[in-house]
Design a protein that fits this description.
Strand order of the largest sheet: 1-2-3-4-5
Order of helices and strands: EEEEHEH
Distance between the termini: 28 Å
Oligomer: single chain
Structural class: alpha+beta
Helix content: 10-25%
């Protein structure tokens, strides 16, 4: 599936950051972040995660693989 916009794409599932280099957030009892995106967009990912979760943090971070565009903003 190709996303042309960021935001909520299904109930509780969000595409955040950039449509070209997104991260995915599942808002659930224990929120899950899929991948961490690139370093350059780290602050944007963080701001958008906060907009969805408020003061809560993702409970799990799942990395699909270790390329820069998937793990650059892990820290």
């Amino acid at each position: 599936m190709i996303f042309t916009e960021t935001g909520e794409v299904a109930s509780g599932l969000y595409v955040l950051g950039s449509r070209d280099v997104p991260v995915y957030l599942l808002k659930a009892e224990k929120p899950v972040l899929f991948d961490a995106g690139i370093v350059k967009l780290g602050r944007i990912y963080e701001e958008e995660i906060r907009a969805v979760l408020g003061k809560s943090d993702p409970r799990l971070l799942l990395l699909t693989h270790m390329h820069f565009d998937h793990c650059g903003s892990v820290s």
